[in-house]
Description:
By secondary structure, the chain is α/β, with parallel strands linked by helices. The protein has helices at 33-39, 41-48, 70-81, 95-107, 111-124, 129-133, 135-138, 147-160, 166-173, 178-183, 185-189, 194-214, 229-246, 257-264, 269-293, 299-311, and strands at 8-14, 20-24, 27-31, 57-58, 61-65. A 5-stranded mixed sheet has the order 1-3-2-5-4. Helix 3 (70-81) packs across helix 4 (95-107) and helix 8 packs antiparallel against helix 9.
Amino acid sequence: MTTAAHLERVHDLWFDDADMIFETEGKAFRISGRTLASISSVFEAMMSFPQPATVETLDACPVIHMPDPAFDVTCFLKAIVYPKYFEAPPARTDFATLLAVLRLGHKYQTGYLSQRALQHLATGYPSTLQAWDSRKDTRTFPQIKNFDDEFQLLCAAQKFGASWVMPSLLYSCGAYPMHVILDSQVWKDAGDLLVEKNTCLLGYAEQFSASLRVVRFLVQPNTEGCTDELRCYKKKLTWFDVVDSWRPSIPLEIWDESDWKRYSREVCSACLIQSRKAHSKARLDVWESLPRTYRLPPWDQLEIRKAESINNLGIPHSSNLPT
């Protein structure tokens, strides 16, 4: 353990008039115990414990060692001390800050920070298909493009009990190729999270099958009113062979507007209209089935839990909280 005299002070979080010093991974933060107790029931209980006769001190302040990563603690304490550091949506944040606040906000029971973290999380992993399709424009943190980060968010949300976000989060995790999932170091390190890992693998298999169901319109008979049945059917079968070779597990994204643009040049207008209708219905069916795929309650029940989770986390119970 690093001795108090050799701690590295985090200057943005070192206040000379504060009465408590928190340490993790050799970094020290001098913060008002009263401020922390005012927004966290865990810190409030911690401050109420009788101090032992001998306690490690630095600058006449007691030193409390925290087991959390220094980066997470830095983000978490900045979110407490600097109100603009982690504002509620529509303000933007970044993945690392969101994950840190999600983890420690839950651990230390800071209701208002947890509420903000869940609000941000919901912009990237919504509970309606319409919001899912528009999330590129509405999300408040950058799109996550690697499995390790996505799975870390999944684990944090699972610990939080945020079941309403799990279908779209699990879907996102299942969108990566299987070799990427199994080779992930975060996945390997999460050896004890058997339920989460098994659920993720189960969903991957279902998403893989659903991808072909979404493009089943390519093998359906021509619609009534088709102006060139032989040509349209041949073109659709050719497209199906192409899509089948992609082998992705992303049924909601397997066929997008760029595909429709090319497809529209190769089939008649009647077949195009019918194909769009069939595709839209198939995508909606996939979305509606996501909770069932992951052994979760249906969306309407998850929506109720979402409202309860975000609205009933509590607010800071002290007027001394920075504003």
